[in-house]
Write a structure and sequence with these properties.
The structure is a single chain. With 158 residues, the chain is mainly alpha-helical. It contains six helices and two strands, in the order βααβαααα. Strands 1-2 form a two-stranded antiparallel ribbon. The longest helix has 26 residues. The protein is globular, with a radius of gyration of 18 Å.
């Protein structure tokens, strides 16, 4: 299927956010939160899917694209594109030849929905530190749970 897949598009409405997540180093580090645009879109697509937020791209605002070859370069990213399409359609027939554009559209729309959620959260709560803001968003939505510390029983005597 890979040689017939169109490029993956993203809305220019979220381009500042996408670039910030992919280029801004994590404070106190030289690492980036998401090393590639592909990883930003994969995260956003998973968030969008988990939240049931499928948002069509507003083509009037313009789009940017990522070559499908970028997805081929990472089997997990490529698998995610197909998995979201199957999960959304509830039908493996979507993997048949000729349905590649539909699969890409599903991924794009969930990524767009996820980016909308992230942008809204950053606007409400400040996104000065995107790494902390994303963790807070994931905690707020119930995806991350604080780990309860084990009590220090060494100090207990009988």
């Amino acid at each position: 299927m890979a040689d017939r897949v169109p490029n993956v598009h993203r809305s220019k409405a979220y381009e500042d956010l996408v670039q910030r997540l992919a280029t801004q180093p994590v404070p106190g580090s030289d690492r980036k939160l998401f090393p590639t645009l592909r990883e930003v879109l994969c995260f956003a697509a998973l968030l969008g899917f988990s939240e049931g937020r499928r948002l069509p791209l507003d083509r009037s605002q313009g789009t940017e694209d990522i070559s499908y070859q970028q997805f081929e370069a990472d089997p997990a990213a490529e698998d995610l594109l197909w998995t979201l399409a199957v999960a959304e359609s509830q039908d493996v027939e979507i993997l048949r030849e000729g349905e590649e554009g539909r699969c890409a559209t599903i991924f794009e729309e969930y990524a767009n929905g996820g980016l909308a959620l992230i942008k809204d959260y950053f606007l409400r709560n400040g996104g000065e530190y995107p790494d902390k803001a994303l963790l807070a968003l994931l905690r707020e939505r119930g995806y991350l749970h604080p780990v309860a510390a084990e009590p220090d029983l060494a100090a207990v005597t009988f």
